[in-house]
Amino acid sequence: MGNKFLDDARQAQALIHVVDASGSTDIQGQPVPVGTHDPLKDVQFVEEEFDQWMVQILQREWHKLSRELESKSGKIIHSITQRFSGLGIDEYDIETVIHHLNLQSKKPQDWSEQDIITFVKELRKKTRPIIIAANKTDLCHDLKIIDELKKTHETIPCSAETELLLRKASKNGLIDYLPGDVVFKIKDGANLNPQQQKALDLAQNVLTKLNGTGIQNILNSICFDVLKLITVFPVEDETKLCNKDGDVLPDAKLLTIGSTAKDLARNIHEDLAKGFLHAVDAKTKQRVGAEHQLKNGDVVKIVSTLSRG
Q1: CA angle centred on 79, ends 75 and 80, rounded to 5°
Q2: Are residues 169 and 181 in the same domain?
Q3: What pLDDT band is residue 74 in, cutting at 50, 70 and 90?
Q4: Is residue 137 one of the residues assigned to a domain?
Q5: 177 and 240: one domain?
Q6: Helix (H, G, I), strand (E, B) or coil at 232
Q7: CA distance between the termini of the chain
Q8: Torsion angle, CA of 218/96/112/129, rounded to 10 degrees?
Q9: Is residue 136 part of a domain?
C-alpha cells in the first residue's frame, strides 16, 4: 500500500501487525506451501519500512537543524518535535527517548547516522507500539514460531477465519457464541447439514488448540494493556442504564486514563461539552463535576444545556 499504509499508520496510536504465522504466504502476498516462508521476515520488513520513513523525516533537514541549534542555542527536543508534529509525537516522547539513549550529552552535529537510526527505532517503539497478530496459527505444525515471535514482540496467536465462521454461524442462529468465548454451543433445534457440522467441528478443534480464536484477545490487549484505555458507558437514563429508546448500556467509549466527565461529553459530541452542566454517576447516583476523573466501568449520564446534533 506504500504511502497509503504510512499515512494510516501516522494517524494510529498503536499498530496490529497481522502476520501469517503458518508461513503459507510469501513476502509478495502469494500463497505458498505451509511452513515455507518465515513470518519473522514479514515483521522485520514492516518495521524497517516504518523506521526508514521516520529516519527520512528526521534526516531531511538534520544538518540545517544542527547549524541552527549551534548558532541560536535552541533546544533539540523542541526542534525534533516540530519535525514529527505530523505524527502526533510530543516533546515528552522525544525527551524520554533522548535521555534513555543518553544522547542529551551530544551536540546534534555529533550525532552519528547510527545514533539517528537507533533514536528513531526507540521513538517508533514508544509512540507506535506494535502487537503481532499471529494469524493462521491453527495451520502451524507446531507453535515454535509463536515462541520465536514472543522473544521480541507482544504476540497473540489467532485464527481470523475461525472467528469469521463462528460469527456467521451465530448471526444465522445456529450457535450461541460471543467474541472472546473459548467454547460455543449449538442451539437446540438447529438443523445442521453435514458441511456445517464439519466446519463447526473444525472450529471447535481450533478453539481447543488456541484457547479461543484470539481475535478478541488482540483487541483487548491493544486497548487495555498497550494503550491503557478505560471503558465508560454513557447513558441518558441513569436509573435504567439506557438511552431514550430503552436500550441498556447502548454505547461504550474508550478513553485514556485520567479522562474527565467533560472529556466524555466531548467524545460523544462537542455540543454536549459546550453546554456541560454536570454528570451523574449511575452507580452511586451522585452528581459530579466537569473535572471528575472517570474509572474503568463507570456508567455516566451527561447533563448539558445543549443536545447532540
Answers
A1: 115
A2: yes
A3: low
A4: no
A5: no
A6: strand
A7: 36
A8: 10
A9: no
Are the C-beta atoms of residues 286 and 262 closer than 8 Å to each other?
no
Contact 191, 169 (CB under 8 A): no
Q: How far is CA 205 from the centre of its chain?
A: 28
What pLDDT digit, counting tens, does each position of 93-114 carry? 999 999 999 998 888 888 999 9
Q: Do 183 and 234 share a structural domain?
A: no
Classified as helix, coil or strand, 231 is strand
Distance, in Å, from the CA atom of 53 to the CA atom of 3, rounded to the nearest integer, reads: 10
pTM: 0.84
* Residues 6 or more apart whose Cβ sits within 8 Å of residue 247: none
Closest CA to 309 of 275, 269, 280: 269
Helix ranges (DSSP H) in the chain: 3-11, 39-59, 62-72, 76-83, 91-100, 113-127, 144-150, 160-171, 194-210, 215-220, 261-268, 270-274
Q: Is 293 left (phi over 0), alpha (psi -120 to 50) or beta?
A: beta
Strands 185-186 and 286-288: unpaired
Predicted confidence band at 71 (pLDDT cuts at 50, 70, 90)? low
